[in-house]
Amino acid sequence: MRFPHALAVLAIGAAMSGCKATGPSKAENTVVTEAKHEVTIGGKDVKNPIAYTPAAAKEGGEHFQHHCQICHGLDGQNTGVPFAAKMDPPVADLSSKDVQDYPDGQLKWIIENGIKPSGMPGWKGILDDEEMWNMVHYIRHLPAKGSLGEPAIYKEEAEEHEHMHGAAHEHHEHKETKPHTHKH
Ligand code: HEC
Questions:
Q1: Which of 31, 120, 137, 142 to mutate to test the pocket of ligand 1 (most atoms within 8 A of CB)?
Q2: Is 36-155 CATH 2.40.50.840?
Q3: Global pTM value
Protein backbone atom coordinates (compact mmCIF):
# COMPACT_ATOMS: atom_id res chain seq x y z
CA MET A 1 0.00 0.00 0.00
CA ARG A 2 2.60 2.53 -1.01
CA PHE A 3 0.37 4.45 -3.38
CA PRO A 4 -1.60 6.63 -0.93
CA HIS A 5 1.71 7.44 0.75
CA ALA A 6 3.17 8.67 -2.49
CA LEU A 7 0.12 10.85 -3.02
CA ALA A 8 0.43 12.35 0.45
CA VAL A 9 4.07 13.18 -0.20
CA LEU A 10 3.14 14.84 -3.48
CA ALA A 11 0.45 16.88 -1.78
CA ILE A 12 2.88 18.02 0.90
CA GLY A 13 5.44 18.86 -1.74
CA ALA A 14 2.92 20.94 -3.66
CA ALA A 15 1.77 22.71 -0.52
CA MET A 16 5.31 23.56 0.43
CA SER A 17 6.39 24.84 -2.95
CA GLY A 18 3.28 27.04 -2.97
CA CYS A 19 4.68 29.12 -0.13
CA LYS A 20 8.36 29.28 -1.07
CA ALA A 21 8.38 33.08 -1.20
CA THR A 22 7.71 33.58 2.47
CA GLY A 23 8.70 30.13 3.66
CA PRO A 24 6.29 27.84 5.46
CA SER A 25 4.96 29.23 8.70
CA LYS A 26 5.71 27.47 11.94
CA ALA A 27 2.24 25.96 12.03
CA GLU A 28 2.59 24.63 8.50
CA ASN A 29 5.96 23.17 9.39
CA THR A 30 4.49 21.34 12.35
CA VAL A 31 1.70 19.94 10.22
CA VAL A 32 4.20 18.76 7.64
CA THR A 33 6.42 17.22 10.31
CA GLU A 34 3.47 15.44 11.88
CA ALA A 35 2.16 14.23 8.55
CA LYS A 36 5.62 12.90 7.80
CA HIS A 37 5.86 11.05 11.09
CA GLU A 38 2.33 9.68 11.06
CA VAL A 39 1.39 9.13 7.45
CA THR A 40 4.14 9.06 4.89
CA ILE A 41 6.93 7.17 6.66
CA GLY A 42 6.30 3.45 6.85
CA GLY A 43 7.90 0.79 9.01
CA LYS A 44 6.56 2.09 12.31
CA ASP A 45 5.97 -1.31 13.85
CA VAL A 46 8.98 -3.08 12.43
CA LYS A 47 11.52 -3.89 15.12
CA ASN A 48 15.26 -3.82 14.57
CA PRO A 49 16.11 -7.52 14.16
CA ILE A 50 19.73 -6.86 15.09
CA ALA A 51 20.36 -6.44 18.81
CA TYR A 52 22.35 -3.38 19.76
CA THR A 53 26.00 -3.96 20.45
CA PRO A 54 28.78 -1.39 20.19
CA ALA A 55 30.16 -3.49 17.32
CA ALA A 56 26.87 -3.25 15.40
CA ALA A 57 26.81 0.52 15.80
CA LYS A 58 30.44 0.72 14.75
CA GLU A 59 29.76 -1.27 11.64
CA GLY A 60 26.76 0.91 10.87
CA GLY A 61 29.00 3.92 11.38
CA GLU A 62 31.45 2.65 8.81
CA HIS A 63 28.71 2.32 6.21
CA PHE A 64 27.36 5.69 7.25
CA GLN A 65 30.73 7.31 6.78
CA HIS A 66 30.95 5.78 3.37
CA HIS A 67 27.51 6.62 1.99
CA CYS A 68 26.02 9.41 4.06
CA GLN A 69 28.87 11.69 5.19
CA ILE A 70 28.71 13.68 1.97
CA CYS A 71 25.49 15.30 3.23
CA HIS A 72 25.26 14.39 6.91
CA GLY A 73 28.93 14.71 7.92
CA LEU A 74 30.91 11.95 9.62
CA ASP A 75 29.05 12.51 12.87
CA GLY A 76 25.53 12.68 11.39
CA GLN A 77 25.30 16.27 12.57
CA ASN A 78 26.32 18.01 9.35
CA THR A 79 29.77 18.97 10.64
CA GLY A 80 31.81 20.48 7.80
CA VAL A 81 29.12 20.05 5.12
CA PRO A 82 29.02 23.47 3.48
CA PHE A 83 25.59 23.22 1.85
CA ALA A 84 23.73 21.39 4.63
CA ALA A 85 21.74 24.41 5.74
CA LYS A 86 21.19 25.66 2.20
CA MET A 87 19.35 22.64 0.92
CA ASP A 88 15.56 22.89 0.84
CA PRO A 89 14.60 21.30 3.14
CA PRO A 90 17.95 21.49 4.94
CA VAL A 91 19.88 18.30 5.69
CA ALA A 92 18.45 16.93 8.92
CA ASP A 93 20.64 16.87 12.02
CA LEU A 94 20.33 13.21 12.93
CA SER A 95 20.86 13.92 16.63
CA SER A 96 17.79 16.21 16.68
CA LYS A 97 14.66 15.28 18.57
CA ASP A 98 12.61 15.14 15.36
CA VAL A 99 14.83 12.39 14.02
CA GLN A 100 15.39 10.55 17.29
CA ASP A 101 11.61 10.46 17.82
CA TYR A 102 11.22 8.03 14.94
CA PRO A 103 11.07 4.40 15.99
CA ASP A 104 13.85 2.20 14.56
CA GLY A 105 11.55 0.82 11.87
CA GLN A 106 10.82 4.25 10.46
CA LEU A 107 14.49 5.24 10.44
CA LYS A 108 15.23 2.11 8.46
CA TRP A 109 12.31 2.89 6.13
CA ILE A 110 13.72 6.39 5.55
CA ILE A 111 17.14 4.99 4.69
CA GLU A 112 15.59 2.43 2.38
CA ASN A 113 13.09 4.68 0.59
CA GLY A 114 14.44 8.18 1.03
CA ILE A 115 12.23 11.21 1.50
CA LYS A 116 10.70 12.57 -1.61
CA PRO A 117 10.69 15.29 -2.79
CA SER A 118 13.62 16.35 -0.57
CA GLY A 119 17.30 15.68 -1.23
CA MET A 120 17.35 12.58 0.97
CA PRO A 121 17.94 9.65 -1.40
CA GLY A 122 16.72 6.07 -0.88
CA TRP A 123 19.25 3.24 -0.66
CA LYS A 124 17.17 0.24 -1.67
CA GLY A 125 19.34 -2.08 -3.72
CA ILE A 126 22.50 -0.27 -2.64
CA LEU A 127 22.56 -1.22 1.02
CA ASP A 128 21.30 -4.53 2.35
CA ASP A 129 18.92 -4.84 5.31
CA GLU A 130 21.63 -5.66 7.80
CA GLU A 131 23.69 -2.62 6.79
CA MET A 132 20.64 -0.38 7.16
CA TRP A 133 19.71 -1.78 10.58
CA ASN A 134 23.28 -1.32 11.78
CA MET A 135 23.11 2.27 10.55
CA VAL A 136 20.02 2.75 12.69
CA HIS A 137 22.11 1.68 15.69
CA TYR A 138 24.75 4.20 14.66
CA ILE A 139 22.13 6.98 14.40
CA ARG A 140 21.01 6.11 17.94
CA HIS A 141 24.57 6.33 19.22
CA LEU A 142 26.08 9.24 17.34
CA PRO A 143 29.48 10.53 18.43
CA ALA A 144 29.78 14.02 19.93
CA LYS A 145 29.24 16.74 17.35
CA GLY A 146 32.49 17.62 15.57
CA SER A 147 34.46 14.83 17.26
CA LEU A 148 35.21 13.06 13.97
CA GLY A 149 36.29 16.16 12.06
CA GLU A 150 35.09 17.07 8.58
CA PRO A 151 34.58 14.91 5.52
CA ALA A 152 37.93 14.80 3.67
CA ILE A 153 36.40 15.90 0.40
CA TYR A 154 35.40 19.32 1.75
CA LYS A 155 38.70 19.77 3.58
CA GLU A 156 40.61 19.26 0.36
CA GLU A 157 38.42 21.71 -1.45
CA ALA A 158 38.94 24.34 1.21
CA GLU A 159 42.70 23.81 1.08
CA GLU A 160 42.81 24.13 -2.68
CA HIS A 161 40.80 27.26 -2.43
CA GLU A 162 43.39 28.67 -0.08
CA HIS A 163 46.21 27.73 -2.45
CA MET A 164 44.53 29.50 -5.30
CA HIS A 165 44.00 32.68 -3.36
CA GLY A 166 47.18 32.48 -1.31
CA ALA A 167 50.32 34.52 -2.08
CA ALA A 168 52.36 31.45 -3.04
CA HIS A 169 53.54 32.35 -6.54
CA GLU A 170 56.12 29.58 -6.68
CA HIS A 171 53.29 27.25 -6.14
CA HIS A 172 51.61 28.57 -9.20
CA GLU A 173 54.57 27.88 -11.49
CA HIS A 174 55.05 24.54 -9.89
CA LYS A 175 51.48 23.71 -10.67
CA GLU A 176 51.82 24.62 -14.33
CA THR A 177 54.88 22.49 -14.99
CA LYS A 178 53.66 19.59 -12.96
CA PRO A 179 49.92 19.36 -12.73
CA HIS A 180 49.23 17.49 -9.58
CA THR A 181 47.33 14.30 -9.87
CA HIS A 182 44.81 13.85 -7.23
CA LYS A 183 43.30 10.53 -6.45
CA HIS A 184 39.83 10.41 -5.00
C1 HEC B 1 22.42 14.00 -1.08
C2 HEC B 1 22.40 14.31 0.32
C3 HEC B 1 22.02 13.21 1.31
C4 HEC B 1 22.61 11.96 1.44
C5 HEC B 1 23.73 11.34 0.63
C6 HEC B 1 21.94 11.34 2.58
N7 HEC B 1 20.99 12.18 3.10
FE8 HEC B 1 19.79 11.82 4.72
N9 HEC B 1 18.88 13.61 4.45
C10 HEC B 1 19.18 14.55 3.47
C11 HEC B 1 18.24 15.65 3.55
C12 HEC B 1 18.20 16.87 2.64
C13 HEC B 1 17.38 15.36 4.63
C14 HEC B 1 16.18 16.18 5.13
C15 HEC B 1 14.94 15.60 4.51
C16 HEC B 1 13.67 16.19 5.02
O17 HEC B 1 13.65 16.86 6.05
O18 HEC B 1 12.63 15.97 4.36
C19 HEC B 1 17.82 14.07 5.17
C20 HEC B 1 17.20 13.44 6.23
C21 HEC B 1 17.59 12.24 6.78
C22 HEC B 1 16.96 11.61 7.94
C23 HEC B 1 15.83 12.21 8.75
C24 HEC B 1 14.54 12.25 8.03
C25 HEC B 1 13.50 13.12 8.68
O26 HEC B 1 12.33 12.92 8.38
O27 HEC B 1 13.82 14.00 9.47
C28 HEC B 1 17.64 10.45 8.17
C29 HEC B 1 17.37 9.44 9.27
C30 HEC B 1 18.68 10.35 7.18
N31 HEC B 1 18.63 11.45 6.34
C32 HEC B 1 19.59 9.32 7.09
C33 HEC B 1 20.53 9.17 6.07
C34 HEC B 1 21.42 8.04 5.93
C35 HEC B 1 21.51 6.89 6.92
C36 HEC B 1 22.13 8.24 4.78
C37 HEC B 1 23.16 7.29 4.13
C38 HEC B 1 22.69 5.94 3.87
C39 HEC B 1 21.72 9.50 4.21
N40 HEC B 1 20.75 10.04 5.02
C41 HEC B 1 22.24 10.07 3.05
C42 HEC B 1 20.19 14.44 2.53
C43 HEC B 1 21.01 13.33 2.35
A1: 120
A2: no
A3: 0.76
